[in-house]
């Protein structure tokens, strides 16, 4: 797990293994790092040079040379700072390019989004951008239930609930949820007291659908479907900010909202 996390931060496989070996040893020679990490001697020097360039290790000019890492807390703080600065630079440049390349279009485009992190990040982004209304249709297998059963979704679900509370409370935005059962409606109402919740039972459904629909400001929509694999859950979704398509889905959800029963605690 630690190797994967370091690689997600931009380390190569060899750099991650050498760095962990350095953390494990207060200070070490190349020979020690080879024995501890399993990285070939020829590759260790290159990895050490990259880690030194990152500013998270130090060396002693002895024979043989000895290396040590700075405290992990300081190393992670430096990596975060460097990452933040690079993100700011990349954002500025990419935003300039994006501004130059975008053109007015009336074409209604629907985009596919795959992966738990990507889908839930999009949901959070949509909610954060809401100015007037958030309308959600929960499936027969609620997102809350799915999140409770899959570790990768728990943190995002907590974030989503937090955004809903802030939007409904501090910003006074309408947050409406159509639930498939009273038990789920009760839990949503307890978690987001200022949300308006209605129940539209779909007990007659042949199978437990694992999906939900969210429409924001009648102009942006996302439909997601959860897939259970051998390990943790995964999500895929379709998203559009095409005005006509979003308006149609919003109209259908609004119609469903009107025929649903208001949930009262």
UniProtKB/TrEMBL annotation:
Domain Transcription regulator TrmB N-terminal: 6-73
A Pfam cross-reference name: TrmB
Record Gene3D superfamilies: Winged helix-like DNA-binding domain superfamily/Winged helix DNA-binding domain
Coiled-coil regions listed: none
SUPFAM superfamilies reported in the protein's UniProt record: Winged helix' DNA-binding domain (SSF46785)
Protein name: Helix-turn-helix domain-containing protein
């Amino acid at each position: 797990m630690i190797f994967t996390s370091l690689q997600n931060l931009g380390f190569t496989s060899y750099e991650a293994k050498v760095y962990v070996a350095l953390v494990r040893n207060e200070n070490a020679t190349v020979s020690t790092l080879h024995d501890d990490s399993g990285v070939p001697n020829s590759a260790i020097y290159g990895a050490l040079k990259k880690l030194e360039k990152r500013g998270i290790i130090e060396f002693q000019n002895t024979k043989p040379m000895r290396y040590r890492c700075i405290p992990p807390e300081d190393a992670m703080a430096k990596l975060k700072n460097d990452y933040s600065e690079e993100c700011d630079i990349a954002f500025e440049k990419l935003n300039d390019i994006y501004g130059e390349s975008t053109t007015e279009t009336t074409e209604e485009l629907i985009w596919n989004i795959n992966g738990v992190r990507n889908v839930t990040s999009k949901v959070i982004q949509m909610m954060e951008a809401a100015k007037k209304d958030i309308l959600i249709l929960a499936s027969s297998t609620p997102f809350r239930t799915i999140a409770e059963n899959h570790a990768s979704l728990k943190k995002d679900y907590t974030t989503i609930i937090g955004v809903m509370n802030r939007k409904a409370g501090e910003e006074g935005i309408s947050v409406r949820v159509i639930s498939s059962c009273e038990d789920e409606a009760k839990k949503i109402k307890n978690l987001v007291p200022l949300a308006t919740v209605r129940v539209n039972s779909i007990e007659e459904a042949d199978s437990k659908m694992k999906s939900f629909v969210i429409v924001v400001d009648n102009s942006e929509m996302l439909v997601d479907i959860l897939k259970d694999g051998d390990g943790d859950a995964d999500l895929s979704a379709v998203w559009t900010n095409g005005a006509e398509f979003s308006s149609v889905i919003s109209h259908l959800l609004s119609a469903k909202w009107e025929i649903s029963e208001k949930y009262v605690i």
